[in-house]
């Protein structure tokens, strides 16, 4: 029988997330202990009021790498040749391609699950806490614009095709009330040690607002699928550890598998936070895992038995997972969510009736049943601060 304490804590977390969501509809106005990481900083594009032409700095950057900007927009981005796949922190480019992410294209995107085998986990034995019991993921209440507005779905292109992850609108300390920042996983924006930056990255908050079935969503108006619209990333940061050591099963970069995106405001210049109506604060000094009574993960699981159309959540008492004696331990909770939930935020109560983000979904075992996410300490704060300052008010 499940213990009472996590269930009571779960109720509090669910209520808190609902309180952070906007009460407006989509058309209304209204300390971690990891070492400092080397932030991977992308080159920014201007975030003008709806100017979707290819910015000159991005065009120049493509030319530097021998890529014709017009060819890029007309399909050259599909060339994943090792010599042209931009990988270094300074080389990120993500020019807006109008009409690329049509609803039908979003619906065919796949999940980039990072799964661990028993051998992957063996080196951490003796430090990890016992494997948690599975916690069945529960669908979030609808409409998401009221019950989970900060949570959304990430779409991007990889050599394997169109992919999906999850993300969270987070507060920006240098732009209070006007944040354009989204928290996600490093493996949702960069392939790690064997590849480079993914392309055509967009964020859709409160995707599929009323959890419609695929056939019903296809027949519904666009505002059902993207109630707040789609936001293109114009700047991305992730950890240097992820770029150097991230791999298909997480690799040595898994404890540093986090990323911060700055998205381009839509026409009119309203920020993402103003449009959605809320954002979640990030806590880089959360207590040790063993002192947290409950932690909740939100996201859009797309691997079987889920289909990626419905926002889900899991709440459990967290434990520690160690992948190596030389890297920080990760948070781990019981949860049945699958790939596609990667990058989704992990929350704890902030003590005032709201929530704060303390991790994101990174890896899971092949057999399912639990999720693990990085502890956010000085390295994660450095990544966050880099992008926040870049777009801070003067």
TrEMBL record:
Biased composition (Low complexity): 36-47
Hydrolase is among the record's keywords: yes
MF terms in GO: hydrolase activity
Keywords assigned by UniProt, alphabetized: Hydrolase, Signal
Enzyme class: hydrolase
Biased composition (Polar residues): 116-128
Record-listed E.C. numbers: 3.4.21.-
Name of the protein: Trypsin-like serine peptidase
Organism for this UniProt entry: Streptomyces cremeus
């Amino acid at each position: 029988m499940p213990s009472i304490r996590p269930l009571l804590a779960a109720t509090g977390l669910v209520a808190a997330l609902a309180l952070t969501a906007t009460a407006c509809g989509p058309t209304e106005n209204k300390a971690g202990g990891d070492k400092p990481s080397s932030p991977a900083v992308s080159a920014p594009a201007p975030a003008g009021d709806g100017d979707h032409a290819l910015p000159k700095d991005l065009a120049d950057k493509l030319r530097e790498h021998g890529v014709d900007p017009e060819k890029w927009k007309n399909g050259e981005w599909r060339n994943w040749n090792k010599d042209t796949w931009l990988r270094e922190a300074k080389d990120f480019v993500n020019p807006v391609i109008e009409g690329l992410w049509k609803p039908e294209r979003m619906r065919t995107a796949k999940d980039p699950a990072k799964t661990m085998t028993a051998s992957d986990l063996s080196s951490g034995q003796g430090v990890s806490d016992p494997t948690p019991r599975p916690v069945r993921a529960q669908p979030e209440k609808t409409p998401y614009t009221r019950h989970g507005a900060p949570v959304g779905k990430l779409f991007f292109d990889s050599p394997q095709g169109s992919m999906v992850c999850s993300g969270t609108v987070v507060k920006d300390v240098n732009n209070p009330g006007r944040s354009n920042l989204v928290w996600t996983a490093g493996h949702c924006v960069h392939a790690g040690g064997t590849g480079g930056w993914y392309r055509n990255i967009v964020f859709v908050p409160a995707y599929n607002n009323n959890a419609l079935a695929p056939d019903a969503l296809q027949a519904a108006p666009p505002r059902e699928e993207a109630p707040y619209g789609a936001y293109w990333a114009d700047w991305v940061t992730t950890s240097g550890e992820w770029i150097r050591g991230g791999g298909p099963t997480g690799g040595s970069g898994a404890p540093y598998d986090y990323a911060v995106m700055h998205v381009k405001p839509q026409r009119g210049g309203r920020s993402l936070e103003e449009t959605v109506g809320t954002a979640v604060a990030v806590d880089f000094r959360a207590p040790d895992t063993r002192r947290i009574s409950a932690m909740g993960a939100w996201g859009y699981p797309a691997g079987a038995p889920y289909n990626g159309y419905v926002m889900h959540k899991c709440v459990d008492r967290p434990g520690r997972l160690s992948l190596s004696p030389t890297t920080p331990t990760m948070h781990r909770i019981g949860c049945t969510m699958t790939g596609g939930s990667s990058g989704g935020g992990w929350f704890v109560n902030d003590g005032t009736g709201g929530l704060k983000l303390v991790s994101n979904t990174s890896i899971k075992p092949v057999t399912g049943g639990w999720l693990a996410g990085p502890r956010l300490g000085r390295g994660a704060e450095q990544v966050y601060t880099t992008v926040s300052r870049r777009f801070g008010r003067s």
